[in-house]
Write a structure and sequence with these properties.
transmembrane, Brnchd-chn_aa_trnsp_AzlD, AzlD domain-containing protein, transmembrane helix, 97 residues
Length: 97
């Protein structure tokens, strides 16, 4: 019984994710739709990161904002993503000393 429930839950979770992958490959979208779809991962990443930036130190939200600005500046300079993360962490660390 438990195995049937696990298989059922996996199908219910997996099917809505797999079906669009097969359908989208066969569709041709206009250029503006493709540009819009390409922006979704960046928007989602920003939505996930921004609340964390504001809550690094709740009493001093400017510390997280300055760390985020350091990351933006490094990313603008086309620095490797690992160095962008390290730079943001270092900026927050230095501001909390």
């Amino acid at each position: 019984m438990i195995l049937a429930i696990i298989i059922g839950m996996s199908l219910v979770t997996m099917l809505p994710r797999i079906i669009p992958a097969f359908i989208v490959d066969k569709l041709q979208f206009p250029d503006w739709v493709n540009r819009w779809l390409n922006a979704i991962p960046y928007a989602a990443l920003g939505a996930l990161i921004f609340p964390g930036i504001l809550s690094v130190i709740p009493e001093r939200p400017y510390v997280g904002l300055l760390g985020g600005l350091a990351a933006v500046a490094l990313a603008y300079l086309r620095v490797n993503v690992v160095l962008v993360v390290i730079g943001a962490i270092a900026a927050v660390f230095l501001l909390t000393l």
